[in-house]
Design brief:
By secondary structure, the protein is mainly alpha-helical. It has 3 domains: 172 residues, no CATH class; 49 residues; 139 residues, Serine Threonine Protein Phosphatase 5, Tetratricopeptide repeat. It has 20 helices and 4 strands. The strands form 2 sheets. Strands 1-4 form a two-stranded antiparallel sheet. Strand 2 and strand 3 form a beta hairpin. The longest helix has 21 residues. The radius of gyration is 30 Å and the shape is elongated. The two termini are 58 Å apart.
């Protein structure tokens, strides 16, 4: 599990206490002998109730111990005795997974989402292939994420949502015909701005679903994300070094979304890769009208100007970018190389060595430093 979600569940182990059977008072659970050396978990509230009722240790109900074992499996699957607890649970009732699921569903129905999460987690930790367990756990995580988003706790919400996404992905891996898994993943990926993945999931959903209302809903969603999918396909082409393929996807969108700054940036980047610096500058300048302090755009505009041998203007753009992000080693390298074009060795040395001190493992920074060192060596 993601660290935040894992820790969230582990914190609930504070609700547990442990008891130990008296020496010589081993318990047999349908053929499984519980040793008196095995610590037995109990939810504190349950233990308090048992004590209030005046029950002696040997009278403590097995049901309360079973619930304690379920609870610890849900909150801390790495606990050293979990394998033994799992054996005991299956000995207690061969249908224990269905029983735990029913308990979790009842808790959620009673608006006890956090407790429900623990029980669904227990099922998944007992049997990672239990589709119902995975599905209900994913749903509960999604609902918890929704609660965090509602309370403006975005970081926590995203952790729970990503964990929920992971379990929906596991479901469709196990059972490729589980239509509702694709339905949910379509929305999850859309929320994460992964529109191509969202499209793939919803198209898979259409292959399996038969409900007319659900089909209509998903077709509407596919229509709504069509342009975002095209944009994602376009910028992926640009980033993998195919600017012409990227422009083929992106340019038609420019007429529909003239003020979409990300689109203008990617078109500018594609033109810069094809050495059409005038077209690139037009797009980057438009981005800066929409987003005046967009650092990557200032850097790209600087690169275009440098390639046109307009070093003074290029340095001005790099200066603007570094005023916003002074420790960006990539921009420092670009300004340093531009100073080198001007023949200003000292300023080039200052920028490139600073960039190298920030990130000595970046290939471009290493290349710039080697080039600088060769020039300095040749002049000495």
């Amino acid at each position: 599990m993601i660290q935040g979600v894992n820790q969230y569940l582990r914190n609930k182990s504070e609700n547990l206490s442990f008891i130990q059977l008296k020496k010589g008072s081993d318990v047999n659970v349908n053929g499984y002998k519980i040793s008196n050396e095995l610590p037995l978990p109990m939810v504190i509230d349950e233990l308090v109730n048992e004590i209030k009722e005046g029950k002696a240790q040997q009278e403590i109900q097995m049901k309360s111990i079973i619930e304690g074992m379920i609870y610890i499996l849900g909150v801390d699957p790495d606990f050293k005795h979990t394998d033994e607890y799992i054996e005991i649970l299956y000995s207690y009732d061969e249908n224990i997974e269905e029983i735990i699921l029913a308990m979790g569903l009842k808790l959620v129905e009673d608006n006890k989402l956090e407790e429900g999460l623990v029980y669904f987690s227990a099922v998944v930790n007992m049997n990672s292939g239990n589709i119902s367990g995975l599905y209900n756990f994913a749903l509960a995580l999604e609902e918890k994420a929704r609660q965090y988003f509602k309370n403006k706790e975005m970081k926590k919400g995203n952790k729970f949502l990503h964990e929920s996404t992971k379990y929906f992905e596991e479901i469709v891996d196990i059972d490729p015909s589980f239509a509702i898994g694709y339905y949910k993943l379509g929305y999850h990926y859309k929320h994460q701005n992964q529109f191509r993945k969202s499209k793939i999931m919803w198209e898979k959903f259409l292959e399996y679903e038969e409900s007319k209302d659900a089909l209509l809903e998903v077709k509407q969603q596919l229509s709504e994300i069509k342009d975002q999918v095209t944009y994602e396909e376009g910028y992926s082409e640009v980033l993998r070094g195919n600017p012409l393929g990227g422009l083929e996807k992106l340019l038609p969108l420019e007429k529909i979304y003239p003020d979409w700054w990300n689109l203008n940036f990617m078109i500018g980047l594609a033109y810069r890769q094809t050495e059409q610096y005038g077209e690139a500058k037009t797009r980057f300048e438009k981005v800066l009208v929409l987003q005046p302090e967009q650092v990557d755009t200032l850097n790209e505009l600087g690169l275009c100007l440098a390639m046109e041998n307009n070093q003074e203007k290029a340095i001005e753009k790099f200066d603007e970018a570094l005023n916003i992000k002074p420790r960006d080693y990539e921009i420092l390298c670009n300004r340093g190389m531009t100073y080198l074009q001007q023949g200003n060795i000292e300023k080039a040395k200052s920028d490139i060595e600073k960039a190298y001190s920030i990130n000595s493992e970046d290939e471009i920074t290493i290349s710039c430093k080697k080039h600088l060192d060769q020039i300095i060596k040749s002049r000495n």
